[in-house]
Amino acid sequence: MTAERAGPRRAVEPLPGLWQGFAATLGRDCRLRFRRRSELANPLIFFALIVTLFPLGLAPDSTLLSGIAPGLLWVAALLSVLLSLDGLFRDDFDDGTLEQLLLAPQPASVLVLAKIVAHWLTTGLPLALISPLLAVMLSLPGHSMGVLMLTLLLGSATLSLVGAIGAALTVGLRRGGVLLSLLILPLYTPVLIFGAGTVRLAVDGAVIAPWLALMGAMLALSLLAAPWAAAAALKLSLDG
Amino acid sequence: MQLDIQKLGCERDERWLFSDLDWQINPGELWRIEGPNGSGKTTLLRILSGQMADYTGTLSWHGEKLSRCREAFMASMLYIGHRPGVKKALTALENLDWYQAMSTVEEGGARARRDACFQALEAVGLAGFEETPVEALSAGQQRRVALARLALGHQRLWILDEPFTAIDRDGVRQLERWMMAHCEAGGSVVVTSHHDSGELLPASRVLRNLRFDGQGGVHVDC
Amino acid sequence: MWPIIHKLGSPKWFYTMSGRWLPFLWGIGTILVVTGSVWGLAFAPPDYQQGDSFRILYVHVPAAILAQSCFALMASCSLIFLVWRIKLADMVAGAAAPFGAAMTFSALFSGAIWGVPTWGTWWVWDARLTSMLLLLFLYLGIMALRGAFASRDGGARAAAILSLVGVINLPIIKYSVVWWNTLHQGATFSLTEKPAMPASMWLPLLLMVVGFYLLFAAVTVARTRNEIIRRQPTARWVRALVQGGRNGL
């Protein structure tokens, strides 16, 4: 136990880098998520369960199922993302690391973006990757599998970004979960409409490029606005 | 002067916690903030650390308005609040490494960063626990992980909210020694503490007091 | 610019001034709505296709217009509140929200009733109805968020952020629903593309719309005044007001 520690060194410290902060936060969040592996699998299991419930509730009729498969898979994916959103900031809020994140010299929106990217890598991306499996079970035509994955990749990133705003607004509330769905689901409708619509068009063999472009545009818009809005919401959640 | 506070006031839900506070924090000063519960100590620290923007009055850092030089201020300020800011699923080393990456310019790469973290953990008496997940440590040890950030040491202004909580007597003394050494080396410390903090601080020549009287008044004793 | 904003933002100034406008807003608004209703329901000629059932238009259209204007007002007030920290703007936003939600609900409800004679069903997944339904959910979300915070200032700022996010999203939601609808159903049931109305039909509608706006203004102003008193019960001018009122009685 020595009192030997580096004292104040310079009058003006050079500022730490933006990229360094982004990478450190992204790395830390990914590592945290992989350390809780069971939680990592939860959204995927939830996704598979919802998809299983629908044939049980409707009928084991493959023409019926393949007709509703695009919408069904999309709704199930959307709900799985929603389910995982509540934990996006809550753990960090509880143990005080969120406070420290906002106190970092880097702009909060960039660090929030790092957290959102980590969230997408561990929910949206795996959901998109396993979706063909469940699509086969719903007898979705084989030629539209690629489009399904592509729309889920693009769309789930938008869902993570928009959802982060809701998660940030409700992080300070004790029962934020239900409220979060109320806030976020209306905002999710355009993504659902375009995501499921694109897959349906692909099933019919129609041109999908304009629809994919619109999904890309929505992703670009939310990439621009959501981290900023989520950072502002986090600041006020910590205030209150 | 480092931090200049002019006419600071804070109102929450139409109630004034304090108002018209004029105060300067200079290099080499250790400010202890006293007052009853709910008088606004924590709120004041949160305003000083730039976490709350909802106040009246002005804060300047080296003569520049705080809102204008947020990055520079955040890079030279260290805040430890009620919640320790330590991830339980990560090891002590990983926790510190994140803080180090966020707050310093990389000199010598990730390796140097790791070495600095090892030294800091040793300084708080956690040598040998570097690779243990924090959830496996005792409450006091967890608190020490947070305090190891002080030993990484390059911020000039420390703002500490109840840092002595859950730490044993030796730890309290060591922390006091650090705070005094930090001030003597030209840094400043602002600290709140509910138990009449420690044994060493009261005798120190760097100590100053700021008292909340609980009725909206704040008294600065130099 | 600054002094004007601050004057406008002062609750006391607003309270004094709005006290003078309020009777006029109530009075003219009520006269217009009553005239418009009587004219529209009793004297306007029946529609050549829909007969008398079209008369619900005189409630449905103003309600739908108000539902959207109210959201616009709420979002602008939220922006003013977040940028300039003028609390009065937040009080107006908070006062307008329930009214907007009520108008959205009225538009949906009257639309459903209208649907029975025209479409033969209570509900059709028409683009307008669907986007109105989503608007209602947005209103409910904003109101729920405001209420969920223990601290009033926290709830106010959260609601303001969500209103702004919502107002950016509204056009996207609206257009996506329109496209979704055209993708699904070949022909949409359109309420607007009908032959031009004669003046005897649209004049009462105009009266109703203006009347609704005035009543909306009156309700919002009255609710804002209540909120001012509720938030600052100890302010000197409020006390003076209460005592003055008692003496006056």
Automatic annotation (TrEMBL), chain A:
MF annotations from Gene Ontology: heme transmembrane transporter activity
Presence of the UniProt keyword Cell inner membrane in the record: yes
Membrane recorded as keyword: yes
InterPro entries to which the protein is assigned, alphabetical: Cyt_c_biogenesis_CcmB, Cyt_c_CcmB_bac
Chief location bin: membrane
One annotated Gene Ontology cellular component of this protein: plasma membrane
Keywords from the named record: Cell inner membrane, Cell membrane, Cytochrome c-type biogenesis, Membrane, Transmembrane, Transmembrane helix, Transport
Subcellular localization(s) per the UniProt record: Cell inner membrane
Membrane topology value: Multi-pass membrane protein
A single BP term in Gene Ontology: cytochrome c biosynthetic process
Spans through the membrane: 40-59, 71-89, 110-135, 147-171, 178-199, 211-234
Family: Belongs to the CcmB/CycW/HelB family.
NCBIfam families: ccmB (TIGR01190)
Its job: Required for the export of heme to the periplasm for the biogenesis of c-type cytochromes.
Name of the protein described by the UniProt record: Heme exporter protein B
Protein species of origin: Kushneria phyllosphaerae
Gene: ccmB
From TrEMBL, chain B:
NCBIfam families, per the entry: ccmA, PRK13538.1
EC number of the protein: 3.6.3.41
Tagged with keyword Nucleotide-binding: yes
Signal peptide extent: none
Protein name in the entry: Cytochrome c biogenesis ATP-binding export protein CcmA
Keywords attached to this entry: ATP-binding, Cytochrome c-type biogenesis, Hydrolase, Membrane, Nucleotide-binding, Translocase, Transport
Pfam families: ABC_tran (PF00005)
Enzyme class: hydrolase
Molecular functions per Gene Ontology: ATP binding; ATP hydrolysis activity; transmembrane transporter activity
Domain ABC transporter: 3-222
InterPro entries reported for this sequence: AAA+_ATPase (IPR003593), ABC_transporter-like_ATP-bd (IPR003439), ABC_transporter-like_CS (IPR017871), ABC_transptr_haem_export_CcmA (IPR005895), P-loop_NTPase (IPR027417)
Superkingdom assignment: Bacteria
Organism of provenance: Kushneria phyllosphaerae
GO BP term (any one): cytochrome complex assembly
SMART domains: AAA (SM00382)
PANTHER family, per database record: ABC TRANSPORTER I FAMILY MEMBER 1
Automatic annotation (TrEMBL), chain C:
Bilayer-spanning residue ranges: 21-44, 56-84, 96-117, 129-149, 161-181, 201-222
Residue ranges of domain Cytochrome c assembly protein in the record: 18-184
GO terms, biological process: cytochrome complex assembly
Protein topology in the membrane: Multi-pass membrane protein
GO cellular component: plasma membrane
InterPro entries for this protein: Cyt_c_assembly (IPR002541), Cyt_c_biogenesis_CcmC (IPR003557), Cyt_c_biogenesis_CcsA/CcmC (IPR045062)
Record key words, sorted: Cell inner membrane, Cell membrane, Cytochrome c-type biogenesis, Membrane, Transmembrane, Transmembrane helix, Transport
Compartments, record wording: Cell inner membrane; Membrane
Key word Glycosyltransferase present: no
Keyword Membrane found: yes
UniProt xrefs under Pfam families: Cytochrom_C_asm
Family: Belongs to the CcmC/CycZ/HelC family.
Protein role: Required for the export of heme to the periplasm for the biogenesis of c-type cytochromes.
Protein name: Heme exporter protein C
Source species: Kushneria phyllosphaerae
